[in-house]
Amino acid sequence: MKLDNVRLLVVRFEEMFQFYREALGLTLTWGDASGPYASFDLPDGGTIGLFRRELMASTVGTAKLPREGEGQDRFVLILRIEDVDALAVALGQRGVALLGAPRDMPDWGLRIAHLRDPDGNLLELIQDLPSDAASSTLHEDETISLEGSGI
Fold first, then answer.
1. CATH topology of domain 1-65
2. Contact residues for 67 (Cβ-Cβ < 8 A; gap 6+)
3. How far is Cα 90 from Cα 41, in angstroms, rounded to an integer?
């Protein structure tokens, strides 16, 4: 089994299209801003698709259910990039607000920043921390054997 792509079911298609093409600078591979579907290649492989949410709801029989509900995020789209700080500056220049300043997460071995796309989906930008900046417990965890774990 192989993951083919991530498809976001969107309400504000045109805004989402512009966000992924213009703000994040992804390469459009199919579709246009009028929808109902568009796909974008990620620079190092992988694809993000956009599809009008109401069409998928109709297809799977959930069109009569509420579209939104308040709660914690149910997923986060993780994008590995070379320089979190540089992209944070570029996004700010394009009018995209981060949820907070980029920060180091030594226990994760990552520098991260979070933002939301126009439909409110959570995105996390990550880059590896230098090994001397990562938590020593992270290095210890990497040596744990997976023997007997079923992996």
1. 2,3-Dihydroxybiphenyl 1,2-Dioxygenase; domain 1 (3.10.180)
2. 11, 53, 57
3. 20
In the three-class reduction of DSSP (H, G, I as helix; E, B as strand; rest coil), residue 19 is classed as helix
Reading the chain (151 residues) residue by residue, the pLDDT tens digits are 787 899 999 999 999 999 999 999 999 999 999 999 999 999 889 999 999 999 998 888 888 888 777 777 788 999 999 999 999 999 999 999 999 999 999 988 999 999 999 998 999 999 999 888 877 765 444 444 344 444 4
Domain 1-65 identical in fold to domain 73-145: yes
* Domain 73-145 coded CATH 3.40.47.10: no
> What residue ranges in 11-150 does DSSP mark as E strands?
27-31, 37-41, 47-52, 77-80, 103-105, 110-116, 122-128
Work out the angle at residue 59's Cα, subtended by the Cα atoms of residues 58 and 64, and round it to the nearest 5 degrees. Answer: 30
Q: In the chain, what are the domain boundaries?
A: 1-65, 73-145
